[in-house]
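Interim report to the steering committee. The following record documents the input for DUF7847 domain-containing protein (218 residues).
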Amino acid sequence: MNPLLPLRDAWFFFTRHLTTLVPLCLPWIFLESLLQQQIDEAVGPQQMGAWSLVAGLLFYPLYTAALILFMDARGRDERPRVGQLWSAALRLWPAFALLAALTSLLIVLGLSLLILPGIFVMVKLSFAEFCLVLRGRSPLQALRESFEFTRGRFFLILACSLVILLPVWSLEAWLADSAGDAVVLRVALHALSGFFQLLLTIVAFRIYSLGPAPRNGM
């Protein structure tokens, strides 16, 4: 499949439902950015890694699970309220947080070996969140199923991920340098970057929803 097709669909969904995505996800992303900024000031950037992961585990499962549930509901032409999605995401938080921790650990382990193993693991685990939220799988089952379901779609997922992440990361780095020591501006820019990274979940969901891929290659 041409990567431009799921990217186009993801952008269309993102812009069409922007008025829902902002109240659904941005408050949690802003709180996550604010907490990470406080951690940075408390422990310093050199020791921030592990604490930043903890901050992510608090909020990332909430807004990502809510986003996945919203996309699934819109696929069935349903319009759940933001409060309903938050409530459902909160019930999923323990399992989702464990899955996020395991995923982060595996990716970091892969990156510590070489860059390519880390990228491979990141792509192969890109469906794990959908398996947990929509299929009711345990974290370990979700990891296994993601490895299976991404077979035949590795390069499609990788291409779409790079198209989204590289510009966002580059813009975030440039804006962070421009913001300097302005804490409020840095938090706002980090939250804005995190909000646009929702496109990564949206495009992965679009590929996931296409159904089984040919069982060849990675």
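The two ends are 15 Å apart (CA to CA). The committee is asked to note this result when reviewing the revised timeline.
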